[in-house]
Design a protein that fits this description.
Chain B has 392 residues and is of the alpha/beta class. Chain B contains eleven helices and 15 strands. Chain D has a domain at 60-117 and 183-433: ABC transporter involved in vitamin B12 uptake, BtuC (Orthogonal Bundle). The chains are: A mainly alpha (376), B alpha/beta (392), C alpha/beta (235), D mainly alpha (452).
C-alpha cells in the first residue's frame, strides 16, 4: 500500500539508474528518535528517582488503558466497528460500583452474614463482589446495545453502525447526566478499601505514614497500582487462554476471519459477536471500577478520554490483536507520562497521537497487526 | 419513496413533542394578567461542565421564585427562561439570540463560563440587553477588545486579580509560606488568571516560586506533577482549579506523602469537595454556608428546602448557586429600584447601586466588577469551615 | 430419501438464479451436479446449507423441512458444506480448523476419533497440525477443507469444486478420498466443473443450465449422452 | 402562542429546505440568464427576510440568521468531507481540524488588519502562494526521480514549508512598515481598514485561510493517506486533536498572543454578512459540483469504488486521494473563515474533537455521495438541534433543556436504523444531478451474509 506520488508519476520506462532517496525519510525518523532518546536520557541522568516515579505513573495509566483497549480491539477484530460507546460502558461500570459502595455499602456484605470473618477477607470478598456486579451490569448493557443498535445494521454500510455507536455514546453520556440518573456532577468516589502507599529508597520498602513526606530519591507506589497491574496482567493471560485454547475463542477468530464459512461450521455468528461484546464490556466494567478506585472521582463523561486513548492504544498495537492492545496501552501510558514529565503537559495528547501516526507510517497495521488479509 | 417515510417519521416525532408542549406550557408562561418580566438564564446544562449549569440554574430560579412569592417586581410576574448554552460559544450565541429575538428578553443571567459569556456579552451590548454573569472571571467579559467597559454587562464575582492577591496574602501571612509551587491548567482562563496574579503578588512580597507545572482539565493521573512537587518540597502548593481537579490532586498527593498544604480559589467550593482529601487546605470564596450572616442563613435554608441531593438530604448551595442567586437578585432589585422595565435604566441602576447579597455587600467598580470582601475557608478535620474574611 | 429438494427458486436481487430446481439424494449415494459457470451449482449448495434463502420451494433433509433453518442449525442436522475456494480459516492452525469443523459436537473423545479418521484419509494434515491454515499449499488446503467438513460427522457432505486449481495427480487423490468417505456411509453431493471425473465416481448426476435442471439420470447414462459429451466432457 | 412558536419553527425548516431545492433547480436550469436571475433572487429573498420588519421583528430574526450563518459554514465543511469520504472513500475525522485552522487563520488576518498590523495578511498570503509554488515545484522535481518513498518526499516538503514560512515572515516584516500607516489603529481606523478595503481583505483572508488549510492538508495527507481507511480515520482524528492542542497553546507554544490560547480570541470583526455567506457557499457548491462532473471527478469515484481496478486503469491513487483531501480541506478552511467572522470570538473549545463528529454525522445523515443530501442535512441539522429542539424544550419548563442532548442521539439512532444509507441516499437534485454518478448503495462488511 505504500504508494508514492513519485512512483506513479514516473514514466513507465526509465532507463536511468534509480536514485534512491529513501535515506532522507529514514534519516528524518532517526533524527527524531535520537532527539527523544537524548531528552529522556538526560532526564534520567539528572534525577533517576523522579524518572522512575514517572515511569510508574505511566504504567498505572497504561494498565488501565489496556483493560479498555481489549474491548475495542476484540470488537473491531470481529465486526470492524469502532465501538465508541465502549468508553461509556466503562463509565457505567464505575457508577454501578459507586452506587453499590456509597448507597448500599455492599462491600461489607460478608461481614453481615459471617460476623467472624477477618476484616481483610471481608474487604477482599466484598470488593470482588462489587466488581463482579459492575461487570455483569456492563455485560448486560453492552449486549443490549449490540442487539438494539448494531445488530440491525450488520448488513448496512459500516459507517451507519459507526454513527449509531456515536449516538449510543452521546445517549449514555447525556442520559446519565440527567439529574435522576447519575447526575452531571463530578462525584468523589467512595473507595471500598483504604489505599496504602509505600516507598522504596536505599534502605528497602517502607509504608508511607500520613503526614510525613517520604525522603528524596524515594520511589512511591500504592496497593492500587499493584492491584491494577496484577488484574490487568491476569486479564491478559485469561484472554490469551480464551482466544487460543477454548472453542469459543477459536470460534471468535474464525468468525472474525470469515463469517459465512464460520456459519457453515455450525458457529452461531450472532452469538459469538454478542459474546465478544460481552467479554469486552466485562473488562471495561472491571477497568471502570479499578479506575474509579484509583483516581476516586467519577462523572458521566469520564469514559470519553480513556476510551479514546485506549482505542488509540489498540490501533497502535495493531487492532484485532490482544497482545497488541496490551503493548499499545503500555506504550501509550509511557508516552503520556514521559511527555507530561519532561516535555510539556499540554502537548501530551498531541505527542501521543504523533507517536501513533509515526508508528502507523512505519507499520501501517500497528505493531502486532497482521497485514490486511485479502479475502476471496 | 422511502425518504418520505423518514420525513414522515420526523413529523411524527415533532407531533409527539408538540403534544407535550401545551401540557407544560402553563408552568412556563401562565399568569400573564399583570404582565410579566422575562429573565433568561443561560446555563451549561450539557457540555463539559453541566454541574455548574445545574447550580446556576438552581440558584437563579430560586431567586426568581422568591421574588414571585413576594408578588413579583413592579407588579409583574417574573418568568425565568432557562437555556442550555453548553459552556461553548456557538450554543451560547444561539441561546442568546433566541431569548433576545424570539422571547424578547431584556435581561440575561449567565453564562457561567467566560468563553461563552464573552460572545453573549457582545450580542447583549449590541442589542442593549442587560447581562449579569455570576461567575465569569475573564476580564474580556466586561471589557471589549479596546479595553473599554461594556455598558450592559456585569459580573457578580470578584475578578482574578482580587482573588489572586488574597490567596498570596493569606499564604504569606497565615501559612507563613516562603516557597510556593503552582499547579495550573493552561487551557483554563480562570485557573491561569488566578495563578498569574498569585505569582505576581507572592513574588512581589518576597516569596519564591519553586516550581510551576501544568496539566489539562481532562487529566486524572497527576502523579508526574506530584512527583515533581515531592522533589521540590514547597511550603504551599497553589492549585486554583475546580473541586473535581482538587479532589483528584489532593487525594493523590496524600498517597504520595506530600504534606505541604494546598491552597486555591472559589473553584474549590462544592458540596462534592472531598474534605478528607483536601484536609489542611484553604481556599478563598465568595461566601461560606457556615457564615453567621442572616442573609446567608436564610439562603442556605431556602435552598436546602428547594433542592435535595441524591440521598434526599437538603443540598448545600455552592458558590456558583450563591452567585447565580446574587446575580439574579441584583438584577431584579435593580429593576425594582429603576421602577421601570427598561434595560438602559436597569443597567444604570446596577452600575451605581449598592446591593446586599449573600456574597457580601456589593458595589460595582468602573469595570462592572464587584468590590467586596473575600472569605477564606479552611478545610480541616473533614469539615469545610469559615476561617476569616480578608479585604483585598 | 436423505435429501429432497423441491421446486427451488432463488434470486440474487433481480436475477433469478435458480428457476425451480428439484432433485433428491438417497442414503449412501454420490450425486453430481454438473454444468457450466453460472449455471447455479454453487447457489444450489448455498441454498441447501442455509447461507442463501430461497424465495420459494423446499428442502427436506431426513424428512424434516430445513428450508428456513439457519445455516448453523443445518450443520447440526448432519449436512456439511465444503465451500468453493476451500475457505480455510487462514489465521487458525490446522488443528484449530479441524476443531472448528467439529464445533457442533461436544465430546472431546469423539472429536479426537473423528480427527484420527481424517488423519487416516489425509496423513499430510497430521504433519502440518500446528501450521497456520493460510500457509498450506492449495492441495493441502483442499484436504483440510474436506477434512474439516468430515469433522461434524455429517450424513451428507456438500462438496463444491474440490478439484479447482489442483494438479491432476492431486485431483485423482482427492477423488479417491471422496470415494473412500462415501464408502464409510456418508452421502455426497458433488459440484464439479471437471464433469468427467465427477461422473466417474458418482451414482447419479444432474445437469444444470442457467438455473434449470436439463438432464438427470444415472452417471453412466449421462456420461454417454451425446449432448453432455459435446458440451461438458469435451469428447 | 407556544404552538405558534412550534409551527413557526417547523415551517422555517420546511421553507429553508424548499429554498435550497429551488436554488439547486435554478442553478441547474439550462439558460444562463435564468441562472443569474435565480441566484440574485435567491440572495435577495433571504436578504429581504433579514431586513423587512413585520410586527416588532424581522421575518427572520437574528436567532434565525445566526442559524443560517452556522448552517452555511457547516455546509461548506460537510461538503468538503463528503468529497473526501462520500465521493473518494477516505474516512476522515480531520475536517474539524482544518475548519479550526481556517477559522483561526482568517480571524488572525482581519484582526491584525483592523489593529494596524498588515503582517497577518502579508505573511499568510505570501506564504500560501509561495507554498503552492513550492509544492508544485518539489512535485515536479520528485516526479523525475523514481522510487522516492513517501517519507522522504514528506521530508522535502516539510523543509520546503519551513523555508517558505521563513521567507514569508521576512517579506511580511519588510513590507509591513509601508502598509501599516494606512491602517491606523483600532481607535482610529486608517483608510485601508474600513469600507470596501476591509471587505477585500475579508475576502482575501478567507481565501488564504482556505488555501492555507489546503496546504496543511497536503503536508499531512501525503504520508497519512497511504494508510488503510480506518487507520487513516484515526490518524486524522489525531490531527484534529493536535490542532486543538496547538490552539489551546497558541499564546505559549505558538507565537500568537492575540489568539489568547484557551482564553479565546476576542475582537474579531463580525464581517460575515448574508452576501458573503451566500457567496462562499455558492462558490463551494459550484466548485465541488464541477470537480465531480469533470474527468477528475470520475477518477475520484473510481478510486472509491475499487482501488485495485482504478490502479490497473492507470489512475494515480496517491495523487487522486491527495487532491480530494486538499480540496475538501480547502472548503473546510473557507467555512472556518466565514464562521469566525460571524461569531466574532474563537475558543479552542469549539474545535474539540467530539464536536468534530458533527460534520461526519451530517454527511452520513444526508447520504454519502449526495451533495444535495449534505446541503439539506447541514441546514436541517442546525435548525433541528439548535432551532427546533431549543425552542421546543425552552417551552417546557426549566428542566427540559437538559433533555436536548438526550433526544438528539435517540433521533440519530432511529434515523440510522431506519435509513442506514442516509436520508437522501445518493439522490441529487437540480444542478447537482449527474447522469454518470451511480454510487453503490450498500457497502457490506460481513461480505455476503445474506440473512442476518
Amino acid at each position: 500500500m505504500q504508494n508514492t506520488l513519485v512512483e506513479q508519476n514516473s514514466p513507465p520506462v526509465d532507463l536511468k539508474p534509480r536514485m534512491s532517496l529513501a535515506w532522507v525519510g529514514k534519516a528524518f525518523l532517526i533524527a527524531l528518535s535520537l532527539l527523544i532518546v537524548y531528552l529522556l536520557g538526560t532526564n534520567l541522568a539528572k534525577n533517576p528517582s523522579l524518572f522512575a516515579n514517572i515511569i510508574l505513573s505511566g504504567l498505572q495509566m497504561g494498565f488501565v488503558y489496556a483493560m479498555i483497549a481489549l474491548g475495542y480491539t476484540m470488537v473491531y477484530g470481529i465486526v470492524k466497528l469502532i465501538n465508541f460507546a465502549h468508553g461509556d460502558v466503562f463509565m457505567v461500570g464505575a457508577f454501578v460500583s459507586y452506587y453499590l459502595v456509597y448507597r448500599f455499602n455492599f462491600q461489607n456484605w460478608p461481614a453481615l452474614f459471617f460476623p467472624d470473618m477477618p476484616p481483610m477477607v471481608v474487604v477482599v470478598i466484598g470488593t470482588i463482589s462489587v466488581i463482579i456486579i459492575a461487570m455483569i451490569v456492563c455485560v448486560l448493557l453492552a449486549t443490549t446495545i449490540e442487539r438494539v443498535a448494531y445488530k440491525p445494521l450488520r448488513n448496512a454500510p459500516r459507517i451507519a453502525a459507526l454513527i449509531t455507536a456515536i449516538g449510543v455514546s452521546f445517549f449514555l453520556e447525556f442520559f446519565g447526566a440527567l439529574n435522576f440518573v447519575f447526575s452531571p456532577r463530578f462525584i468523589p468516589y467512595t473507595r471500598p478499601f483504604e489505599v496504602v502507599a509505600w516507598y522504596i529508597d536505599g534502605s528497602g520498602i517502607h509504608s508511607i505514614v500520613a503526614g510525613t513526606q517520604p525522603p528524596a530519591n524515594a520511589i512511591t507506589f500504592s496497593n492500587i497500582f499493584l492491584i491494577i497491574m496484577i488484574v490487568s496482567i491476569l486479564v491478559q493471560i485469561f484472554l490469551q487462554f480464551l482466544v487460543k485454547q477454548t472453542k469459543m475463542g477459536i470460534a471468535m477468530r474464525a468468525v472474525s476471519y470469515d463469517k459465512p464459512t464460520a456459519r457453515l461450521m455450525g458457529i452461531n455468528v450472532d452469538q459469538v459477536i454478542s459474546f465478544t461484546f460481552a467479554i469486552g464490556a466485562a473488562f471495561a466494567g472491571l477497568g471502570g471500577v479499578l479506575y474509579a478506585i484509583a483516581y476516586s472521582s467519577i462523572n458521566t463523561q469520564m469514559g470519553i478520554l480513556p476510551g479514546l486513548k485506549a482505542f488509540v492504544a489498540a490501533v497502535l498495537g495493531g487492532i484485532g490483536s490482544i497482545p497488541g492492545a496490551f503493548v499499545g496501552a503500555l506504550i501509550m501510558g509511557q508516552a503520556e507520562a514521559l511527555t507530561m514529565g519532561f516535555i510539556s503537559t499540554p502537548m501530551r495528547d498531541a505527542v501521543a497521537f504523533a507517536i501513533l501516526i509515526i508508528v502507523l507510517l512505519v507499520r501501517p497495521t500497528g505493531i502486532f497487526g497482521e497485514p490486511e488479509n485479502e479475502k476471496a | 419513496m422511502r425518504a418520505f417515510k423518514v420525513f414522515g417519521l420526523l413529523m411524527v416525532v415533532v407531533m409527539v413533542l408538540s403534544a407535550c408542549a401545551p401540557a407544560a406550557a402553563p408552568a412556563a408562561g401562565g399568569a400573564a394578567a399583570g404582565g410579566e418580566i422575562k429573565i433568561a438564564i443561560l446555563a451549561p446544562l450539557s457540555g463539559p461542565v453541566p454541574t455548574f449549569g445545574l447550580s446556576t440554574k438552581e440558584g437563579a430560579t430560586l431567586a426568581v421564585k422568591e421574588w414571585n412569592d413576594k408578588g413579583g417586581v413592579l407588579g409583574k410576574k417574573i418568568v425565568a427562561i432557562v437555556e442550555d448554552s453548553q459552556c461553548t460559544p456557538d450554543p451560547a450565541v444561539n441561546a442568546a439570540n433566541k431569548v433576545i429575538n424570539q422571547d424578547k428578553v431584556k435581561y440575561i443571567v449567565g453564562e457561567v463560563c467566560s468563553k461563552a459569556s464573552i460572545p453573549v456579552s457582545e450580542i447583549a451590548n449590541e442589542k442593549k440587553v442587560v447581562q449579569i454573569s455570576g461567575t465569569s472571571t475573564n476580564p474580556s467579559v466586561v471589557r471589549d477588545a479596546a479595553g473599554k467597559v461594556k455598558p450592559f454587562t456585569f459580573v457578580a464575582c470578584f475578578n482574578d486579580d482580587t482573588q489572586g492577591k488574597v490567596i498570596a496574602k493569606f499564604a504569606k501571612e497565615n501559612i507563613k509560606a516562603k516557597t510556593a509551587f503552582i499547579m495550573l491548567d493552561q487551557a483554563n482562563d480562570y485557573v491561569k488568571g488566578l495563578a498569574e496574579y498569585f505569582e505576581k503578588y507572592f513574588t512581589a512580597d518576597g516569596g519564591t516560586i519553586v516550581g510551576k507545572e501544568t496539566y489539562t482539565s481532562k487529566d486524572t493521573d497527576f502523579s508526574t506533577v506530584l512527583a515533581k512537587i515531592a522533589e521540590a518540597k514547597p511550603d504551599v502548593v497553589v492549585l486554583p482549579d475546580y473541586y473535581n481537579i482538587v479532589n483528584l490532586v489532593t487525594k493523590q498527593a496524600k498517597e504520595k506523602g506530600i504534606t505541604a498544604p494546598f491552597i486555591g480559589g472559589d473553584g474549590w467550593d462544592s458540596p462534592d469537595l472531598d474534605p478528607k482529601a483536601a484536609d489542611g487546605g484553604f481556599f478563598t470564596n465568595h461566601y461560606s454556608p457556615t457564615e453567621d450572616r442572616e442573609k446567608v442563613k436564610t439562603f442556605v435554608k431556602n435552598y436546602g428546602e428547594a433542592y435535595k441531593n441524591d440521598k434526599g438530604e437538603p443540598k448545600t448551595p455552592d458558590a456558583l448557586a450563591a452567585l447565580a442567586y446574587d446575580a439574579t437578585n441584583i438584577l431584579i432589585e435593580a429593576i425594582s429600584k429603576a421602577g421601570e422595565d427598561d434595560a438602559t435604566k436597569v443597567a444604570d441602576t446596577i452600575a451605581k447601586g449598592k446591593f446586599e447579597a449573600v456574597s457580601g455587600s456589593i458595589t460595582f467598580d468602573e469595570f462592572h466588577t464587584p468590590i467586596k470582601p473575600v472569605t477564606v475557608i479552611a478545610v480541616k478535620d473533614g469539615k469545610v469551615t469559615f476561617n476569616s474574611q480578608v479585604m483585598p | 430419501m436423505l435429501l429432497d429438494v423441491k421446486n427451488l427458486n432463488v434470486y440474487y436481487g433481480a436475477i433469478h438464479a435458480l428457476q425451480g430446481i428439484s432433485f433428491h439424494i438417497e442414503e449412501g449415494e454420490i450425486v453430481s451436479l454438473i454444468g457450466a459457470n453460472g449455471a447455479g451449482k454453487s447457489t444450489t449448495l448455498r441454498t441447501i446449507s442455509g447461507i442463501l434463502r430461497p424465495r420459494s420451494g423446499s428442502v427436506h433433509f431426513k424428512g424434516e423441512d430445513i428450508t428456513t433453518t439457519p445455516a448453523e442449525q443445518i450443520v447440526r442436522r448432519g449436512i456439511s458444506h465444503v465451500p468453493e475456494g476451500r475457505k480455510i480459516f487462514a489465521p487458525l492452525t490446522v488443528r484449530e480448523n479441524l476443531e472448528m469443523g467439529a464445533y457442533t459436537r461436544d465430546d472431546p473423545d469423539e472429536i479426537q476419533k473423528s480427527m484420527d479418521r481424517v488423519f487416516v484419509s489425509f496423513p499430510r494434515l497430521k504433519e502440518r497440525l500446528n501450521q497456520l491454515g493460510g500457509t498450506l499449499s492449495g492441495g493441502e488446503q483442499q484436504m483440510l477443507a474436506t477434512g474439516r467438513g468430515m469433522m461434524s460427522k455429517p450424513s451428507l457432505i456438500l462438496l463444491d469444486e474440490p478439484s479447482m486449481g489442483l494438479s491432476p495427480i492431486l485431483v485423482e487423490e482427492i477423488f479417491n478420498i471422496i470415494k473412500e468417505i462415501n464408502s464409510q456411509g456418508t452421502s455426497i453431493l458433488l459440484v464439479e466443473q471437471n464433469a468427467l471425473m465427477a461422473l466417474s465416481i458418482s451414482n447419479r448426476a444432474y445437469v444444470l443450465e442457467t438455473g434449470r435442471i436439463v438432464l438427470e439420470g444415472n452417471a453412466d447414462d449421462i456420461k454417454n449422452n451425446p449432448q453432455v459429451k459435446s458440451a461438458y466432457l469435451g469428447i | 402562542m407556544e404552538l405558534g412558536f412550534l409551527i413557526g419553527s417547523v415551517v422555517k425548516i420546511g421553507a429553508i429546505l424548499a429554498y435550497l431545492y429551488g436554488l439547486l433547480w435554478v442553478l441547474g436550469h439550462k439558460k444562463l440568464w435564468v441562472k443569474i436571475v435565480g441566484v440574485v433572487a435567491a440572495f435577495a429573498i433571504v436578504q429581504l427576510a433579514f431586513t423587512i420588519t413585520i410586527g416588532d421583528s424581522t421575518i427572520l430574526n437574528e436567532f434565525d440568521s445566526g442559524l443560517v450563518f452556522q448552517a452555511a459554514s457547516m455546509t461548506m465543511i460537510a461538503l468538503g468531507l463528503n468529497l473526501i469520504y462520500g465521493f473518494n472513500g477516505q474516512f476522515s475525522l480531520g475536517q474539524w481540524g482544518f475548519y479550526g485552522i481556517g477559522a483561526y487563520t482568517a480571524a488572525d488576518i482581519t484582526f491584525r488588519w483592523i489593529n494596524g498590523d498588515s503582517r497577518g495578511l502579508l505573511v499568510v498570503g505570501i506564504g500560501s502562494i509561495l507554498g503552492a509554488v513550492m509544492i508544485l515545484g518539489i512535485q515536479k522535481w520528485l516526479s523525475r526521480l523514481r522510487g522516492v518513498p513517501v517519507l522522504s518526499a514528506f521530508t522535502f516538503y516539510l523543509f520546503g514549508s519551513v523555508l517558505v514560512g521563513a521567507v514569508a515572515v521576512v517579506i511580511g516584516n519588510a513590507l509591513n512598515p509601508a502598509i501599516s500607516p494606512l491602517l491606523g489603529s483600532a481607535y482610529e481606523p486608517g483608510p485601508l481598514s474600513q469600507g470596501i478595503w476591509l471587505q477585500i481583505v475579508y475576502f482575501l483572508a478567507i481565501i488564504f485561510a482556505g488555501v492555507f488549510a489546503g496546504e496543511v492538508s497536503f503536508l499531512f495527507g501525503l504520508p497519512v493517506l497511504s494508510l488503510g481507511s480506518d487507520y487513516f480515520g484515526i490518524a486524522t482524528l489525531g490531527f484534529t486533536i493536535i490542532v486543538n492542542t496547538l490552539m489551546l497553546n497558541s499564546d505559549t507554544i505558538l507565537p500568537f498572543p492575540e489568539m489568547k490560547g484557551g482564553r479565546g480570541m476576542i475582537g474579531i470583526p463580525k464581517l460575515t454578512t448574508w452576501f458573503w455567506a451566500f457567496f462562499f457557499m455558492l462558490m463551494v457548491i459550484i466548485i465541488m459540483r464541477n470537480v465531480i462532473h469533470s474527468s477528475t471527478g470520475r477518477t475520484i469515484l473510481a478510486v472509491r469504488e475499487d482501488e485495485t481496478a482504478a490502479k490497473a486503469m492507470g489512475i494515480d491513487l496517491a495523487s487522486t486521494k491527495l487532491l480530494t483531501f486538499v480540496i475538501g480541506s480547502f472548503f473546510a478552511g473557507i467555512g472556518g473563515g466565514v464562521y469566525a467572522h460571524y461569531i466574532g470570538f474563537l475558543s479552542p473549545g469549539t474545535f474539540d474533537f467530539l464536536a468534530g463528529f458533527n460534520p461526519l454525522i451530517i454527511v452520513v445523515f444526508g447520504g454519502l455521495g449526495s451533495m444535495t443530501g449534505t446541503i439539506a442535512a447541514s441546514f436541517g441539522w442546525i435548525f433541528f438541534l439548535e432551532g427546533l429542539l431549543r425552542v421546543l424544550l425552552g417551552q417546557m419548563g426549566p428542566d427540559a433543556p437538559t433533555w436536548r442532548f438526550v433526544l438528539y442521539p435517540i433521533v440519530l439512532l432511529l434515523l440510522m436504523l431506519i435509513r442506514p444509507q442516509g436520508l437522501l441516499g445518493t439522490v441529487e437534485w437540480g444542478f447537482l444531478k449527474a447522469p454518470f454518478v451511480r454510487p453503490r448503495e450498500n457497502q457490506h462488511t460481513a461480505s455476503d451474509v445474506v440473512e442476518g
